[in-house]
Design a protein that fits this description.
mainly beta, two-stranded antiparallel ribbon, about 10% helix, elongated, Tannase and feruloyl esterase
Length: about 60
């Protein structure tokens, strides 16, 4: 499983630049004054995306 995915900026001043995007459920953690990105797992952030939809009898 990849940690980061290649991405291309589609508009703005940096249009066409290549960057890395963290694969879900990882999120970026910036270091060195915002110049170095590390993809990390953050349980609190992850929990905001996982829902228990027990009001429905069908899989959602």
């Amino acid at each position: 499983m990849p940690v980061a995915l290649n991405s291309t900026i589609l508009s703005g001043d940096h249009k066409g630049n290549q960057q890395q995007l963290c694969a879900w459920p990882l999120r970026p953690l910036w270091k060195n004054n915002g110049t170095t990105m590390h993809c990390v797992f953050d349980k609190a952030s992850y929990d905001t995306w996982i829902y228990d939809l027990d009001a429905f009898t069908l899989p959602v």
